[in-house]
Records
---
Amino acid sequence: MGELPLYEEESLRFRAPRLYDRMMEAFSNYNLHPYDAEATITQKEEGMDLSIRLGGSLIDLATIHISPKQAEEPDEEVISFFETAAEECKNLLIKNYFNMIKL
């Protein structure tokens, strides 16, 4: 039996700083801060998996498979992904806020 390769998640901020900057640019349009979401990237044989989670929790907001070229120069697909993830993050933060008030 062959062993499956293990892929390690790395912080997007350190692994692909240009991509991280574009994500933060999209998130700032929704008044979100770097600590509101956590982005990780996992190197795969055929590209990379980019995951965004709600900061401080394990709630997955979105995941996308990108090429190394997209990591260096984000295209419209990646920017649209960031916009969608930022909107979802904002909606979840608002929902969580109102749930805390009800308690």
---
Amino acid sequence: MSMMYFTFCTTFMLGIMGLTFHRTHLLSALLCLEGMMLSLFIALSFWVVKFETLTHSSLPLIMLTFSACEASVGLALMVATTRTHGSDKLKNLNLLQC
């Protein structure tokens, strides 16, 4: 296993572990998701450089665009839940209520 592959797998797994074990605030969950997307973006960028494929050279840019859209939607949801519930704690959110 190469060092680069190990680094990408480790950063992605750290994001998953942070998402599963530290779910007290919505902001921390969003940061873990953003870290996972960033590790995937860097891995995809290095994959394009390593194999020198011109047909897939736009994939990292498209993924970065979707990651930015995901971050903006997540922050908008966090602002909306903070205004309605008073905090961003995930324990206070009940998805079954209207």
---
Amino acid sequence: MRHGEATPMQADDASRNLTSVGQQQAEKMGLWLQATHTPTALLVSPYIRAQQTAEGVKKHNAFLFEETCSDIIPEGNPQIAADYLETLIAMHPQCDTWLVVAHMPIVSYLVDQLSAGNMPIFNTGAVAVLSYDESRHKSQYLSIHAPNNVAV
């Protein structure tokens, strides 16, 4: 998931907040996730706008596992992020649906790392859905959903 709409760029990118639209996007996608995928684990960027997005999603979803991860910042290394996510999946078998809340461009690169050849462009608040086969360490990209095209 890409974070919701944020305030304009500034010198301290990590401190940008969600706008009121971004807060609405996060809550709407939280409702959509609850109805369609029921995530049980959350991995979120330390940047404020990603943390605020996660808080909006958490209003409608209960997570068994939550962690803030500095590897999923905008300029993060997608291979390291994918490896870390796969390690967490293996370590937490009780969690069957994972939500990663991050930023462009790393969310697109992360999808490509997990499902080669698929690099969707994420609108703010958008969620890409992948099916992960842990035994093969392979993912299949299924779809992408943005706040303006989901019904809740």
